[in-house]
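Input protein
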Amino acid sequence: MPAAITSLRPTQITVGMREVKTKRKRWRETDRKEKGGEFLGKHMIPVVLGPKENHYIIDHHWLAPFMMKASKRHFTVIADLSKLDPDAFWLC
């Protein structure tokens, strides 16, 4: 099920923008060496489908703001929990 990177919902309350800046710098250096695709392949954003089939980020929260700026869509759905009611979903 395709989704825009901007529609991903975080499950972590904050994201350290210093970390995002560091990762963005590392990405630029990696991209110059023509290994950008390899870097992204190793850093897919794992998401689960939750209530109303929304995509929830469960790891690599720092990568989402970076991907928004880079206009990339590298995430993978690792579980479909959309059939759970919201209370049960948040207990998982």
Notes: The longest strand covers residues 75-80. The two ends are 22 Å apart (CA to CA). The mean pLDDT is 76. The chain has one domain: 5-91.
